[in-house]
Amino acid sequence: MRYSASHKVEIREKLIAAAGALSKKKGFGITGVDALMATVGLTGGAFYGHFKNKGELLEAIVDNEMRLTQAQFLNDESNPTPLRTRLQRYLSRSHLTHPELGCPLPSLSSEVARANTSVKATYERHLEELVANLSDAMPTPDPDRAWAILAMAVGGITLARAQNNPALQEQVLNACVEQAMVIAGKNGPNSTD
After folding, report:
1. Confidence (pLDDT) at 189
2. pTM as predicted
3. Three-class SS of residue 20?
4. How big is the CA angle at 23 (ends 48 and 32), to the nearest 5 degrees?
5. Cβ–Cβ contacts within 10 Å for residue 164, how many?
């Protein structure tokens, strides 16, 4: 039975989303094609009808996941979200315990580091956009400070996920929020910006 072109596009989009969640939770490199395809109810043999290779899927996952992360950091000018609120959402218990629902940077950056140049170019493009959004959220836009905040946030989630002790996890997350606000130029625990 032949499927329509739109059906193939829908399956591809579902696969990218489901494989992205699975990859963020379990790791892309160690997750086989069969497991990735099973996320949309297909066998591993159907994979090559959607992608040339696993690297092409990783690039599609990175592109999709980074667009979702950017949307979370974009500031709606009609209803601005303070930087502290954005950082608290990112450095949260929910993001810590549900990598499949969160940002791909803590989970997939090491995968991208081993990937081909096309995957890295997609990742880089999105990172630069994310840093520009963070920079714009500061009292005085500064890309260097935005890079530092992003690195601290991603590193904070990564370090906290690698610990068993919930109190230490919370200490890492809270310290990263506070120090990120200092870097942004909005220091002090009572700062709402």
Report:
1. 44
2. 0.87
3. helix
4. 45
5. 6
Give the C-alpha separation, 133 to 143, whole Å.
Answer: 9
Two tokens at 141?
């836009």
Token pair 């109190």 in the structure block, residue: 167
Full DSSP string of 142-182? -HHHHHHHHHHHHHHHHHHHT-S-HHHHHHHHHHHHHHHHH
The answer to whether residues 130 and 69 touch, using CB atoms and an 8 Å cutoff, is: yes
Distance CA 177, CA 149 (A): 9
Q: What is the pLDDT of residues 31-57, one digit of tens each?
A: 888 988 888 888 888 888 889 999 999
Handedness of CA 39, 40, 43, 45 (dihedral sign): negative
What distance in Å separates the CA atoms of residue 177 and residue 66, rounded to the nearest whole number?
21
Rg, the chain, Cα only: 18
